[in-house]
Design a protein that fits this description.
With 126 residues, the chain is α+β, with helices and mostly antiparallel strands. It contains 3 helices and 8 strands. The strands form 4 sheets. It has a two-stranded antiparallel sheet. It has a two-stranded antiparallel sheet with strand order 3-4. A two-stranded parallel sheet has the order 5-6.
Length: 126
């Protein structure tokens, strides 16, 4: 359900992937203006705020979005994921249901790549 709503927020040329239980990544390509990133983030939050109907129960969720830009924040995919993860925690710290752009001046938590038992790579915060 959530993935369909997220897919409605991006262009066909963009990438939407589920990283884990409640974590998704969206890769926006060929941006002429970073204002588009902010518009997409706001639309994602709006879509997630709309109630879900699950087994005849209304469920409400919110989202926290971390944004990292290439090449400003890094040109390497793994570093962009780490930076976006750090920005997401900044958004959560600011009160959830919001978004934050990566800032190298933000306090950093140590983020360590690991392999989950299902074989997928994870970024664990320490």
């Amino acid at each position: 359900m959530a993935s369909a709503r997220l897919a409605s927020c991006v262009r066909e040329t963009d990438t939407l992937a589920r990283l884990g239980g409640d974590e998704f990544t969206i890769i926006l390509q060929d941006l002429g203006d970073t204002k588009y990133v902010e518009l997409v983030a706001k639309e994602v939050l709006r879509q997630l705020a709309s109630p879900f109907l699950v087994f005849d129960h209304t469920v409400r969720i919110s989202g926290s979005i971390g944004i990292a830009l290439s090449p400003q924040d890094s040109k390497k995919a793994e570093a962009l994921i780490v930076n976006a993860d750090q920005a997401m925690y900044q958004a959560k710290h600011a009160g959830r249901n919001g978004f934050s752009f990566f800032s190298p001046l933000s306090p950093k938590a140590e983020v360590v790549p690991s392999i989950h038992p299902d074989g997928n790579r994870r970024l664990d915060r320490h």
